[in-house]
């Protein structure tokens, strides 16, 4: 008796000559944001594009070159306010918000920028703008440098915290499990946490608002009476 083998659907390929660097980078960003740098391979990228792997190599020399190009494209999306559009503190706040939005909307950007040295001028432009604004706000050189690092550490850390939390809570029933665990805590052992659990969950669910609140407090603390 013969056994009929299942027929595999042919892989959909892109129309001939439709592949270009912009399309490759669009697909790379989508793949990176969805699956992370660990799953980013030339084969996976080619499969997403519906082409053979060598077709991608005809536009980029390899994964590292694509990663650099993706990082530069994402950095270029940071919306910097026009220079001098507001007083330094307000302008500094908008620059930080732009960096935070990039890292939360494209989690892969954070991974790429920490795994490989930054190439190009986009990241340097952001750093220069922040340092200039801190100096314009009245901080001397060393304090401006320290304030810049503190703001970037807070911004990157907040983006990482919120993107990982959002991804974890996407699992079915995750929020209910967290609430149930908090409800089950003994009040006599964790009095502060039990009493503030509803408030804690509320502020953690509003990542951008919480980031902005902390950012305002940090800027005020760093600049003080400047």
Automatic annotation (TrEMBL):
<keyword id="KW-0804">Transcription</keyword>
<dbReference type="InterPro" id="IPR004111">
    <property type="entry name" value="Repressor_TetR_C"/>
</dbReference>
<protein>
    <submittedName>
        <fullName>TetR/AcrR family transcriptional regulator C-terminal domain-containing protein</fullName>
    </submittedName>
</protein>
<dbReference type="InterPro" id="IPR036271">
    <property type="entry name" value="Tet_transcr_reg_TetR-rel_C_sf"/>
</dbReference>
<dbReference type="InterPro" id="IPR050109">
    <property type="entry name" value="HTH-type_TetR-like_transc_reg"/>
</dbReference>
<dbReference type="Pfam" id="PF02909">
    <property type="entry name" value="TetR_C_1"/>
</dbReference>
<feature type="domain" description="HTH tetR-type">
    <location>
        <begin position="18"/>
        <end position="78"/>
    </location>
</feature>
<keyword id="KW-0238">DNA-binding</keyword>
<dbReference type="Pfam" id="PF00440">
    <property type="entry name" value="TetR_N"/>
</dbReference>
<feature type="DNA-binding region" description="H-T-H motif">
    <location>
        <begin position="41"/>
        <end position="60"/>
    </location>
</feature>
<dbReference type="InterPro" id="IPR009057">
    <property type="entry name" value="Homeodomain-like_sf"/>
</dbReference>
<keyword id="KW-0805">Transcription regulation</keyword>
<dbReference type="InterPro" id="IPR001647">
    <property type="entry name" value="HTH_TetR"/>
</dbReference>
């Amino acid at each position: 008796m013969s056994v009929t083998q299942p027929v595999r659907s042919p892989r959909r390929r892109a129309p001939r000559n439709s592949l270009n660097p912009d399309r490759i980078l669009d697909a790379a960003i989508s793949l990176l944001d969805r699956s992370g740098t660990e799953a980013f391979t030339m084969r996976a990228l080619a499969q997403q594009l519906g082409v053979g792997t060598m077709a991608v190599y005809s536009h980029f020399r390899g994964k590292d070159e694509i990663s650099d190009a993706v990082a530069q494209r994402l950095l270029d999306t940071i919306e910097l306010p026009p220079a001098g559009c507001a007083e330094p503190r307000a302008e500094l706040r908008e620059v930080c918000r732009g960096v935070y939005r990039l890292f939360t909307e494209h989690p892969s950007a954070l991974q790429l920028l920490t795994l490989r040295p930054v190439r190009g001028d986009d990241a340097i432009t952001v750093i220069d703008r922040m340092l200039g604004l801190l100096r314009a706000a009245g901080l001397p050189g060393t304090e401006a440098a320290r304030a810049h690092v503190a703001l970037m550490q807070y911004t990157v850390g907040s983006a990482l915290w919120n993107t990982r939390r959002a991804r974890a809570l996407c699992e079915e029933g995750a929020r209910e499990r967290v609430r149930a665990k908090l409800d089950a805590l003994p009040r006599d052992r964790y009095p502060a946490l039990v009493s503030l659990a509803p408030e804690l969950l509320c502020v953690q669910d509003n990542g951008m608002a919480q980031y902005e609140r902390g950012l305002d407090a940090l800027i005020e603390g760093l600049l003080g009476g400047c």
